[in-house]
Amino acid sequence: MELIIQSDAQAVSVIAARYISHLLREKPNAVLGFVAGQTPIPLYKELVRKFREGHIDFSRVTAFSLDEFVGLSPDHPASYRSFMFKHLFEHINIPQKNIHIPDGMATDIPEHCRQYEDAIQKAGGIDLQILGIGVEGHIGFNEPTSSLSSPMRTKTLTPRTRRDFAPQFGGEERVPRYVVTLGLGNVLAARKCMLLAFGKRKANAIARTVEGPVTSMMPASVLQMHPVVKVFLDAPAASLLQNTSYYDWVFEGKPEWQKY
Length: 260
Known about the structure:
Blueprint: E1 2-6, H1 9-26, E2 31-34, H2 41-52, E3 62-65, E4 67-69, H3 80-87, E5 99-100, H4 109-122, E6 128-131, E7 153-156, H5 159-169, E8 178-181, H6 184-189, E9 192-197, H7 203-211, E10 229-234, H8 244-252
Parallel strand pairs: 1-10, 2-3, 2-6, 3-5, 6-9, 9-10
Antiparallel strand pairs: 4-8, 7-8
Helix pairs in contact: 1-2
């Protein structure tokens, strides 16, 4: 696990976008796992900027989104499909046929999950999974007590998570109770993972994820078991870590062939 700590979200996103650009130069037909939510917006803006300036090409990329609300139509403004198109997909040259997003309106969710996992396998597996983290440590919608080897499935949101989404839905009572999400087992199957976290509110979850025990009560801690994880943080999100000086020393001293 490598930690990259910068002063603010913009500085972090510039480096994270360079990392993705480097990956796509090495493998133009990479399979990327995308996440919705407020955290990745600065990264997506930077990717769009790099695309418009001709520094990155998505024409051969295949995309898989991480999760979606159950019972929410794809065109609902709070759906993750709407989010991904608004903030990224409609601004880059990724082919529509290469975009995969869970269907929260599927009549048979378990079968839809199996088909979605099969589609990932047929695409060759996810090369890079982009992740955010909730204040309770969830990645995707894998809430606390999720199995560390869980497959794609439905999950019930915690009351705290539903409160967090209340502003987007016009009240907590309007937030869907259920979601469909790739599981922690799916995340571990990705070849590389990128975790983004910004703000003091995420500091406790980050400290427990990176430096605490691996436990289902902190689902993101499963990333300690993944061989290639890059954790991109702003200073407030990193503020409760015990070893920041070491993480900074490692990043600043990377050999030229490892820099991005």
